[in-house]
Structure formats: C-alpha cells, structure tokens
Amino acid sequence: MAVVDELLRSEADGTISFGNYALKDKAKLENFEHCGDLYKVKTYKTMTRLEKNGMFAYESVPGTSVLHFVENARETRFIVEGDEDAQITVGLNEDTEYEVFVNEKSIGKMKTNLSGKLNISVELAEADDVSVRITK
After folding, report:
1. In a domain, 56, yes or no
2. Which whole-number Å values give the CA distances from 102 to 39, 43, 77, 87, 99, in the listed order?
3. Tell me: the pLDDT tens digits for 76-105?
C-alpha cells in the first residue's frame, strides 16, 4: 500500500493525493496550492481530513491515504487505501441526490444532508485499494 509521505501532493494528471494512515502522531499541512485552490490536510492513524478553501472536503475514520482525488460539477472520484475498514464522509452539494460507486459497482443512490455531507463505508481490510466515484 502507498501512503502519501508528503501528506499532500499534486499528481501529473491534475488530481491530488493525500493522507498517511501509518502515522502514529497527528501531522498537518496547510496552504497547499493546487489549481488555484488552497488545501489543508490533517492525517494520522485514526483520522484523515481534507479542507479545500477553508471548506470541508473529505474525512475518514480511521485514517486513510487517498490517491487521485478529483472533484468537478458532475462527480467526485478517488482511490482510497487503509489498514482497516473506514467510514468516509465527503463534502458535496447540500440536499442533493448522488449515485455512489465502489470499485465501479453501484451501491445505490444517496442524498446529502443539509450541510452537504455524504457518508459511505468502504471495506479496506481485505483490499489493496478501493475506487470510489460519486456522481450527480
């Protein structure tokens, strides 16, 4: 499995990767600029959190590494890795219905709450990594 040693990095394909679930102590990186946006990440074994321009974007409990994270008006997609199953919360549009795909298999349609958060669980204990795609 590939943790993100830099905590947050830009990828050649225009996406970002972040998080290091192997850390025993909290680590954070602030004011990381990518494509005109400012990101902040906090990560360690029990939690990984990403903020974009001061707004909530992603959180996992326990901590995870997220590869090739990208979001646009139509979808949010990423690959997630970790030592154990994780509860993931993604910041999206409030009170909106999305279809969620895990490893390209639909797990159904879900609606965000009034704060725009969508919660999903992913089974990581038995997998090298899991792809997640959330579409409007």
Report:
1. yes
2. 25, 23, 10, 13, 10
3. 999 999 999 999 999 999 999 999 999 999
